[in-house]
Amino acid sequence: MTEVPTHTPSAVELADLELLLAGALAPLTGFLGQSDLSSMSRTGKLADGTTWSVPVTLTVPSGLAEHAELILTDPEGAPLATVTVTERWPVREGRVGIAGPVRRTGDGGRPPFARLHRPAADVRGSLGGDRVVGFFADRVMHRPQIAQVVQAARSLAADAVVLIPVGTAGPDGLAPEALIRCILAANDRLNGATIVAVPLPHRGNEIHDALLRSRVAAAYGVTHLLAAGDMLTGGGPRVIVSREFAYDARDGQWRWRDDVPDRFQRDPLTSDEINDMLDDGVTLPEWHTPPAVARELARARPSRRHRGLVVFFTGLSGSGKSTIAHAVADEIRESGTRSVTLLDGDVVRRELSAGLTFSKADRDLNIRRIGWVAAEVGRHGGIAICCPIAPYAGARATARAMARSAGADFLLVHVSTPLEVCEARDRKGLYAKARAGLITGMTGIDDPYEVPTDAELRIDTSTGTIDDGVKVVLNSLIHGGWLPA
């Protein structure tokens, strides 16, 4: 008997797989094929005439495409489902698209709060009436958002379903499990709403995101979808545009703004105001946020004084970035105010990335490894200081995303010392070897350096001393609240 090969899909494909297995993409039972995709792009319908507008696809390495079945696994290799391949077609070099139905296999894919990842049919069956108000809680629900859901359900005499999109960090910058904890903390104020976690990472297309949310909401029994503004539904639930709420200072209730006289109104806090209060460790006011929610949010997003931070230096060899990074780390260690880990480029190459070359792929892998370690340091409330060359913008963006997904802040420091100054220093003799043709792949000589456009700090050691650069970084950490004065 031939062993069935395994494959780990991408994050979006894994999310689609979970939705398929949960029945949340009904009537789909598997990944779409070419005929359905072609018909959908032309008519907004599948080949059988079913209205559908979101591509749900799976690509695999060419070497796996010829098999009749594939076992799909989670990133740890645990089996999730088996796909029976009914169609295959080339997508790009080395990758093939496959279509076919999926069926659950094994016991993999148990995320945090697995009990909230419920089959769509189970949720529909648990609802009592024929009217259901749905709300996608992709950020923390404060009192104004809670009032919107409760009031909408009350006005329609409907059940309420709160759908929590998980898969990537939301607008609040919270990890999915932290967002779920904050929503659950508001549960006692939602009048018995059903809470469901659904894997809905951003797909890079706002229209597809909106249409998919509408489809998923309908699968979970939602008849009226509460949204902040116009939303494409593609035949899904009716959209209710949420009205503005204001705090009524007369009795401490949140009501529709037009029901509260101007002199008694208090506006909801803005996202910036909430973030500033959390950064400073200030407790959110009870009139705006239920205490249980405020406590969970403070745990998930502690003050900057106790929050993890990744300080990521980038610059040419000889720019002075390692010297500044070492000095900054030493100053923090001497103060004893924060736990600090230094990930020096050369040390990482020896201890973490031994064997990697200086090709673009290996350079990106090296930065990914540094970014992962730094994010884990930040996840546990430490400061990680990194100082690789990191010449490519994409790899730096990945490191930033890793830190943020771990709940840490990220500070990019571009040590922008000009090439001619770096080459004149040439402490390691690398530039001379590159000019002589003895080595290749030297950043700034025969390999590009993509100048950051998103750096929070820029330091040029040709116009100032190393001590000046150290002071710039430390002052930024102090003024930003990550270090005490």
From TrEMBL:
Q: Does the keyword Metal-binding apply?
A: no
Domain ATP-sulfurylase PUA-like: residue ranges: 4-93
List GO terms (cellular component aspect).
cytoplasm
What InterPro entries does the record tag this protein with?
A: APS, APS_kinase_dom, ATP-Sase_PUA-like_dom, P-loop_NTPase, PUA-like_sf, Rossmann-like_a/b/a_fold, Sulf_AdTrans/APS_kinase, Sulfurylase_cat_dom
Documented EC number(s): 2.7.1.25
| APS kinase domain ranges (all copies) | 307-460
* Molecular functions per Gene Ontology: adenylylsulfate kinase activity; ATP binding; sulfate adenylyltransferase (ATP) activity
Alphabetically list the UniProt keywords: ATP-binding, Kinase, Nucleotide-binding, Nucleotidyltransferase, Phosphoprotein, Transferase
Name a Pfam family for this protein: ATP-sulfurylase
> Has UniProt tagged this entry with the keyword DNA-binding?
no
Record's CDD domains? Answer: APSK
The catalytic activity, as recorded, is: adenosine 5'-phosphosulfate + ATP = 3'-phosphoadenylyl sulfate + ADP + H(+)
Entry superkingdom: Bacteria
Residues covered by the Sulphate adenylyltransferase catalytic domain = 127-231
Summary of the function given for this chain in its UniProt record: Catalyzes the synthesis of activated sulfate.
Q: To which protein family does this belong?
A: Belongs to the APS kinase family.
Provide the protein name.
Adenylyl-sulfate kinase
